[in-house]
Structure formats: C-alpha cells, structure tokens
Amino acid sequence: MADVSTMNVSQIVRAILLESSTLTDLTADRIFADHVLDADAGTLGMPSVIIAVSSGVSMSNRAVQFSDLEIYAYSSVSSAEAVTIYDLVYGLLQSERLILNNVSTRGIVRETSRPDSGYNDHLKAWFVRGDWVASVAG
For residue 28, which phi and psi values (nearest 5 degrees)? Predict the structure, then answer.
C-alpha cells in the first residue's frame, strides 16, 4: 500500500527549510508544519514560517497525491522582513524535489500563485502568504 500522507508532505517541506542556515539564521527553529492555534498565538516566536496543508487531490490508487499548501512568512518587525523570509523560502522550494531519508514519499513542490501580504492583528505580525502544490507519490 502507498505510504503517501499529508503529514509526510509538510514534514519534508519543513525539513528542507530547516537545512538552510540562511533561513534559520533569521527564524531559528521557528518553522512549523501546521498553523498555530488561537490559544498559542501569543507564544509564537518571530520571525517564523508556517506550512499549512489547505486541501488536495488523491488519485484513485492512492499512490499519487497533490497537496495544496499555504506557506506563510511572519515578522513582528516589518513587512520587509516577512518578504525577505518568503523570498528565501521561495528560493529553497520552487521546483524542489521532495526527498527525505526514511520517508518513502517523494515528489516536487512549486508555487502556484504569487504571494499576498498583510497584517495579522491576532498575531501582531506582518505576513506574506503564497500558494503552493506538492505533487507526491509513495
């Protein structure tokens, strides 16, 4: 049976981002594979990156899946810092092969629409959010 899972996809993307010292110099380990809960909003360190699976499509044999991702870059300092972080994420992920040792899920990720930006009053932070798709097989 195929070993393709939504969690595998977001964890592989997270692992790729965590391997970049240029990105982690800004975010430390604040790269998350799920959005924060409202109760945790006050404890979210900044700047940070959030990878949120929003939807997807699975083929009938379950071996191939397309996961739609929303990738957020947050900054409590400025919108410019959020853009800088998102640009780093883009450079690391655009058309990148998704491969992680000990995980049979493999694929590719790409941005599907250029990001939008704004200010999140709840988090008290600027954000840049792009839409991505991960095409994977396991």
Answer: 55, -130
Contact 78, 86 (CB under 8 A): no
pTM listed for this prediction: 0.89
The DSSP bridge partners found for residue 21 are none
CA–CA separation, 128 vs 80, rounded Å? 10
Q: How far apart are CA 79 and CA 136, in angstroms?
A: 32
Number of Cα atoms under 13 Å in the Cβ half of residue 1: 1
Q: How far apart are CA 52 and CA 33, in angstroms?
A: 6
Residue pLDDT, tens place only, 14-44 = 999 999 999 999 999 999 988 766 555 567 8
